[in-house]
Every structure is written in structure tokens, then in C-alpha cells.
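Field log, afternoon session.

UNIT: design team B
ACTIVITY: writing a sequence onto a fixed backbone
BACKBONE:
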């Protein structure tokens, strides 16, 4: 609890930092704030562990953003990727070193929350935050934010972190602006041991029929996580793609344990990330890789920064100081994750028009596969590759302009020659 001297503090508890939402972003923010010794309250509307529609793919940047001592509860280690283009031209690429890991989100998220609790954060589950107020009767002074819970209870804080996911109420308060909304459909399909064995250590990525869409199979022991994602507004076509995808894989006969849908949202470049003493992070801030829709590493990284800056805002003596810290938070996010997002957005624009080129490059052009491998393993990022390789930068610019009808030789090769081939380990 804050050691502030105001008379209001004597009557009502005032938390240093209240975090709304206990996904990877919220748990990460709560951990970062709690390890500094501040009083941190983490509010979650569900009971934990809770299900979250997600592939659970943990790439290098996610692994590197985990709190110290965190042991990933991996369900599988990916060493091979089978790529297909609308179910055809299937080709598998392999790597001796693990490419990325796969987790079940309920278990992963709960473990992250436990880490935040061990660092000193207090957790309340089964509480839904209705809104936050920074002015008015509920707010005892200008250094305090009122967090209003469903049912009417009010919790007070010096700073609030909104990590309440893609339908964020705190994001609405901050005024987060979005320019990409996608619909993900996913099923958790228990399969017999023979089927599970066939998938062990290998994922499938299918470049889909709707511009910008793709599908995946992520094995988790005796269960396959199968999903597709596409721009919102193509609901019927996305559902059809999902059903065809499952049928094509020979999985239609197995009853899914869970079948669900979820929206993902990407922020506009100029979208706010704070308002007064309230910060947003993760999906609540629209922080997501626009091309792959990878969001766990964005949630963990933006959550950690939000937790660190929320502590500084909690200590700010006035609105000017609080605003300075909030701007520093926004600056840190934009300089890192913001750059990754803008490169991802350009990749998506090219991919939407030329999925065949991506397929051809990843399956037939060794440097492209190496880049995929290095990005998933975390030794580089897409933004870093584009920044340091003038050829990659030029290719992205040229392809963004070239009409989609002009298929290059690589795409002809993909369509003509590659059906069913396997590649050597690299
Ligand atoms: C189909 C699909 C597949 C995906 N696959 C991957 C993948 O393989 N790898 C990857 O990196 N990313 C993936 N993502 C993205 C990833 O799931 C998200 O980016 C990530 O979960 C964001 O974490 P978060 O903590 O910001 O939000 P969330 O994980 O959504 O957590 C938000 C939390 O806030 C709580 N909450 C919401 N409202 C309130 C409220 N009013 N009061 C209190 N609590 C509240 C929710 O219950 C929830 O626990 C996928 C997304 C989809 C849709």
C-alpha cells in the first residue's frame, strides 16, 4: 500500500499499482511492479486456471521475456514445420535445434500469476472491473484512480495497468485506436496415440484461401490445437476454411474438447497507450504482431514495461510528473515493439497479395527459412533483419508495389515442383 500522507489514505487503502487482467501481460506487469517492493493488486474476472483461445506458441522473444526462474510448462518442442499452400505443395523443413515451444495457456498463465504472487502481488479472481475513474466523487484526490468493480465496490490506486485483453474496458478508457481486427477460430482435439505420434515435434502452417489468413496445427501431447485466423468480416469464409482445414487433415472424426473463437486487434501507430495514471499493455493496447498475430511476447514485454512505469507513475507527485512517466512508457514501447509491429504490418500487406511467394520462399529459398528459424528461436527479429539487410528491405518495398498477378519464378516453382517434398535438416 502507498505510504502517502493524505487523510483519504488513512481511511481507504490505496494500492500503488492495480493491474486489470491476469493474462501474460497482466501477470508480467504485476510481477515487474511487485519485485520493486510496491503494493500491487492483480484483478481477474475469471477463476484461474482459465481457458484462452490461443495456439500457445512460445517463440524466442516470449521465452526471453519470462521472469527469472520461470520454468516453461512445455507440451512439445518444435523441430519441424510443414508448410502448405491451401492444403497443397506440402513441404517440411527441419531444424536440429528447437524452433519454438508449445504450452497450454491455462497452465502457462497460471504459472505466470503464481510468479507475480511470489514477488508479492496480491491476486483477486472472480472480479470484473467495470470502469476506471480519474475524476469525480469516487476519486479522493488527484493522485488517485478509482477502479470500479462489477457490483459497485471501488478499489483505489496510484497507477492502473489495463491488461484486460482484446475487448479491453481499460483500453476504451484510454482511447486505444485499432486498425486491424482478426477472427481466430480454434479447436482442442484429443487424438489417439498413433495420430499424436505423427505430429510430435512438428507443426503445420497452411497459407489460407482468404487474403491474410493462415491455419496451424500445434501438437500438445495427446491433443492437437488446430486453428485458423483471418480478417474479421469474413466470418462465414473463415468458418468454412476452418472446417475444410480440419477435414483435409483427417481430423474431422475426432470430437474437439473445446471449440472457440476470439478476436485479435492491432493498434494504429498513433494510438494512445496511456491516459492520466492509467497505462495499457498486451492485447488491451492492441500490441500484437500484425502478420503472424503472435501476441504472447508482445504481452510479456509490454506488460513488464507497463509494470515498471506504473511504479514511477505511482510515485509521481503531480499530473505533470505522471504524464512525463506515461510518455516515457509510450516511447519505450514504440521504439521497440512499435517498430516490430510496423514491419509486421508491411509483411502482412505483401502476404495478403502474394501468399504463394511466402510459401515458395520458406520452402525453397534457404535464407528465408533461416530467417524464419532465427526469428522463432529468438536470435533476431523481423524488424532487425529488415533494418540490417538492405536486400530484405528493398524486397519488401518492391513486393509491396508489384501487382499480385505477376507471379515470380519462385512461385511458379512452388506450384509446379514442390508437392510433398521434404528437406534436409538445417
Ligand atoms: C486463435 C488465436 C491463436 C493465437 N495463438 C498465439 C500463439 O500461438 N502465440 C502467441 O504468441 N500468441 C497467440 N495469440 C495471441 C495471444 O493469445 C494474445 O496476444 C495474448 O493472450 C495476449 O495476452 P494478454 O495478457 O494481453 O491478454 P489475455 O491473455 O486475453 O488476458 C486478459 C485477461 O484479462 C481478463 N479480463 C478481461 N476483462 C476483464 C475485466 N473487465 N476485469 C477483470 N479481468 C478482465 C481476462 O479474463 C483475461 O484473463 C493467438 C490469438 C488467437 C485469437
Amino acid at each position: 500500500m502507498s505510504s502517502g500522507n493524505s487523510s483519504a489514505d488513512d481511511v481507504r487503502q490505496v494500492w500503488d499499482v492495480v493491474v486489470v487482467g491476469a493474462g501474460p501481460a497482466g501477470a508480467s506487469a504485476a510481477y515487474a511492479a511487485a519485485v520493486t517492493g510496491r503494493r500491487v493488486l492483480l484483478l481477474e474476472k475469471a477463476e484461474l486456471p482459465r481457458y484462452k483461445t490461443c495456439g500457445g506458441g512460445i517463440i524466442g522473444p516470449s521465452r526471453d521475456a519470462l521472469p527469472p526462474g520461470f520454468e516453461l510448462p512445455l507440451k512439445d518442442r518444435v523441430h519441424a514445420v510443414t508448410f502448405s499452400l491451401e492444403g497443397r505443395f506440402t513441404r517440411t523443413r527441419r531444424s536440429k535445434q528447437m524452433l519454438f515451444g508449445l504450452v497450454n495457456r491455462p497452465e502457462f498463465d497460471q504459472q505466470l500469476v503464481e510468479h507475480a504472487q511470489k514477488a508479492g502481488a496480491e491476486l483477486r479472481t472472480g472480479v470484473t472491473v467495470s470502469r476506471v475513474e480519474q475524476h469525480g466523487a469516487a476519486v479522493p484526490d488527484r493522485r488517485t484512480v478509482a477502479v470500479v468493480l462489477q457490483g459497485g465496490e471501488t478499489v483505489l490506486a496510484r497507477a492502473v495497468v489495463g491488461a484486460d485483453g482484446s475487448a479491453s474496458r481499460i483500453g476504451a478508457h484510454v482511447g486505444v485506436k485499432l486498425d486491424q481486427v482478426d477472427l481466430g477460430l480454434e479447436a482442442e482435439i484429443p487424438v489417439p496415440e498413433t495420430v499424436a505420434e505423427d505430429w510430435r515435434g512438428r507443426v503445420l502452417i497452411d497459407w489460407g484461401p482468404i487474403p491474410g489468413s493462415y491455419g496451424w496445427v500445434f501438437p500438445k501431447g495427446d491433443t492437437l490445437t488446430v486453428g485458423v485466423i483471418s480478417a474479421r468480416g469474413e466470418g462465414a469464409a473463415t468458418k468454412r476454411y476452418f472446417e475444410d482445414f480440419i477435414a483435409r487433415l483427417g481430423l474431422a472424426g475426432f470430437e474437439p474438447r473445446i471449440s472457440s473463437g476470439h478476436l485479435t486487434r492491432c493498434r494504429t501507430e498513433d494510438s494512445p497507450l496511456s491516459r492520466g495514471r492509467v497505462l495499457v499493455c498486451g492485447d488491451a493496447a492492441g500490441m500484437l504482431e500484425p502478420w503472424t498475430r503472435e501476441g504472447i511476447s508482445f504481452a510479456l514485454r509490454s506488460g513488464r514495461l507497463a509494470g515498471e512505469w506504473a511504479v514511477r507513475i505511482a510515485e509521481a507527485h503531480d499530473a505533470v510528473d505522471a504524464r512525463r512517466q506515461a510518455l516515457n512508457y509510450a516511447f519505450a514501447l514504440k521504439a521497440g515493439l512499435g517498430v516490430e509491429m510496423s514491419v509486421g504490418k508491411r509483411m502482412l500487406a505483401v502476404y495478403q497479395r502474394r501468399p504463394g511467394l511466402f510459401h515458395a520462399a520458406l520452402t525453397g529459398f534457404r535464407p528465408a527459412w533461416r530467417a524464419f528459424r532465427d526469428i522463432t528461436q529468438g536470435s533476431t527479429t523481423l524488424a532487425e533483419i529488415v533494418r540490417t539487410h538492405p536486400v530484405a528491405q528493398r524486397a519488401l518495398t518492391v513486393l509491396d508495389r508489384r501487382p499480385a498477378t505477376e507471379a515470380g519464378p519462385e512461385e511458379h516453382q512452388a506450384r509446379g515442383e514442390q508437392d510433398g517434398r521434404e528437406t534436409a535438416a538445417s
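LOG NOTE: Residues 20-26, 43-46, 50, 52-57, 128-129, 163-165, 169, 184, 186, 227, 229, 262, 264, 282-284, 288, 293-297, 299 surround flavin-adenine dinucleotide (CB under 6 Å).
NEXT ACTIVITY: expression trials, pending approval
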